[in-house]
């Protein structure tokens, strides 16, 4: 009896390349009173996925209405209530809620409550999104904030204010 023909396409080299982030782990950035913890970065996922934990203090806007051309964004609310606007609809998303926002969908988010809200933001593909958060930390902690620099950062990382698109 001869050995069956081998198919090299079915001989996958297996390797454990898992990365585990325990609670509180990851690089923490501060943009004003908002904290951003980098979890799964572009370098880890080969730019396929970005996962970031954002904690918004009470009465804080996370992002005004904007859209992305090349990536989708998913919100997973961990704690508190996150208000997410998508298109003309706004939802008060409680802990456990998941909101998927495909590219070209205007969206924004805020914490309008009296308690902090923590959310996981997932971007796919990642588009090196952590560069956006690093730039945000620098720009939003400057006094005064430079609006032209802020807009340039937005555009560099595939974010476009919805009111600019509507004005065209």
- Report the CATH topology name: Jelly Rolls
Which shape, going by the Cα principal axes?
globular
* Strand residue content: 35-45%
Q: Spans of 5+ residues with little confidence (pLDDT < 50)?
A: none
Structural class: alpha+beta
- Count of separate structural domains: 1
The tally of strands reads 11
Compute the CA-based radius of gyration.
19 Å
Helical segment count: 4
Give the helix level as a range of percent: 10-25%
Which keywords apply here?
4 helices; 168 residues; Jelly Rolls; five-stranded antiparallel beta sheet; alpha+beta
Tell me the layout of helices and strands.
Blueprint: E1 27-31, E2 34-40, H1 42-45, E3 50-56, E4 60-67, E5 72-79, E6 81-86, E7 89-94, E8 98-101, E9 107-111, E10 117-124, H2 129-140, H3 147-156, E11 160-161, H4 162-167
Antiparallel strand pairs: 1-2, 2-3, 3-10, 4-9, 4-11, 5-8, 5-10, 6-7, 6-9
Question: Can you walk through the features of this model?
Answer:
With 168 residues, the chain is an alpha+beta fold. It has a single domain (28-167), classed as Jelly Rolls, CATH 2.60.120.10. Helices cover 19% and strands 39% of the residues. The chain has four helices and eleven strands; from the N terminus they run E-E-H-E-E-E-E-E-E-E-E-H-H-E-H. Strands 1-2-3-10-5-8 form a six-stranded antiparallel β-sheet. Strands 7-6-9-4-11 form a five-stranded antiparallel β-sheet. Strand 1 and strand 2 form a beta hairpin. Helix 2 runs antiparallel to helix 3. The radius of gyration is 19 Å and the shape is globular.
């Amino acid at each position: 009896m001869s050995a069956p023909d081998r198919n090299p396409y079915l001989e996958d080299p297996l390797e454990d390349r898992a990365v585990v982030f325990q609670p509180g782990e990851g690089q923490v950035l501060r943009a004003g009173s908002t904290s951003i913890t980098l979890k799964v970065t572009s370098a880890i996922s080969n730019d396929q996925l970005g996962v970031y934990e954002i904690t918004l203090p009470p009465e804080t806007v996370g992002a005004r209405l904007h859209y992305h051309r090349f990536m989708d964004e998913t919100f997973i609310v961990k704690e508190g209530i996150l208000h997410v606007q998508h298109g003309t609809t706004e939802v008060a998303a409680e802990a456990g809620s998941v909101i998927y926002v495909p590219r070209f969908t205007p969206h924004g988010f805020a914490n309008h409550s009296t308690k902090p809200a923590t959310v996981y933001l997932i971007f796919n593909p990642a588009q090196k999104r952590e560069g956006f958060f690093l730039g945000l930390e620098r720009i939003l902690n400057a006094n005064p904030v430079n609006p032209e620099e802020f807009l340039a950062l937005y555009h560099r990382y595939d974010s476009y204010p919805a009111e600019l698109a509507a004005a065209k």
